[in-house]
Amino acid sequence: MTLRNTAVPTAIVGMGCTKFGDHWDRSAEDLLIEAVNDAISSVKGIRLDDVDAFWLGTTVSGISGMVLSKPLKIKNKPITRVENMCATGSDALRNACYAVASGACDVAMAVGMEKLKDSNTQGLVVPSAPTDGTTADLTAPAMFSLLIPAYMDKYGVSKEQMREALSHIASKNHANGAKNMRAHFRREVPVETISTAPVIAGDLNLFDCSGISDGAAAAIVCRARDVTKYCDSPLFIHALSLSTGSDTGSSDSAYDYTTFPEVAVCAENAYNQAGVEDPASQISMAEVHDCFTPTELVLMEDLGFSARGAGWRDVLTGRYDLGGDLPVNPDGGLKSFGHPIGASGLRMMFEMWLQFRGEAGPRQIVNPQLGLTHNLGGQPGGVVSFISIVGSTPR
Hints:
Layout: E1 10-17, H1 28-41, E2 53-57, H2 66-72, E3 79-82, H3 88-102, E4 107-114, H4 140-145, H5 147-155, H6 159-177, H7 191-195, E5 199-201, E6 204-205, E7 215-223, E8 235-244, H8 261-274, H9 279-282, E9 285-287, H10 293-302, H11 311-316, H12 333-337, H13 344-356, E10 371-379, E11 382-391
Helix pairs in contact: 1-2, 3-13, 6-10
């Protein structure tokens, strides 16, 4: 069965995004205020009070809707706090779109925010509920490092070839981030430097891992038929897909750590919604969840951009570079833009907002037709996957 994305087509008519980084001198409230005010100011003829309902995505930076209502002085509006691991910001947007499509409200806002740098958070270690004791007790780098030997073994890729491909991914994303004034890490890093960096876990080194950041982003959503009231260049939602795994991969002998099955299912659903038959040729650009470089590599195959076992070659030919056939993470991705967990999904959408409006500056892609954003949360063997497909014209 294919889930329909919305009963009524929806569109984004305003967006805002802070710079991501080490904001030691700014609070979570400061970041929320900036992102929301920027989104409001990007829309003609709208005030904060005109927004009917809000969805706030954050994992560790507060509980309840009052995290948003207090700094923005929002009174007596429905505000729902959303948490869905690293797909939190994307799920906030998904819920806002569904609310508008259902007719429950005319204008909705999705906000994502995380303040990690001064909250005693290291890596992506977040509070978790007690388990039955069967969950693997490994760090995120350790879990995702398992993708590397599994991929090499299955597809006959040498250690040198794999290292070259992974270093290319990291270098590409740093090069893109260097062109982005909002990115956390704005310096190009050569492949040679990346390849010889200190090891973190398995064959993952320092430059294979995304950074931890503070930041916020916001989007304003309305029905597609109402966009002319608010915006001359809206971003139309063609698909919204969410797939949640059963978290049994680590105990399943059939799971081989060369794919995220939830992503493949999520992608198929999104393509069916958007009428995409050949994603490798129909998708113009993609923002994907490059929490680690092997994650981006595997995603190229799960999303149908590369054939199984061919993703590493496509990476090395430059297919996914900014000037390639299908640019991936033109804003720098998690690797360079940073990863404030609750904000990352909306940050990806912000890049679509800029690109489809021709406002991406030195990283502008020529005449994009369809864009894809992808988030995942969890670890190999059990993830939550979100995919959206967007464009500058309604479907």
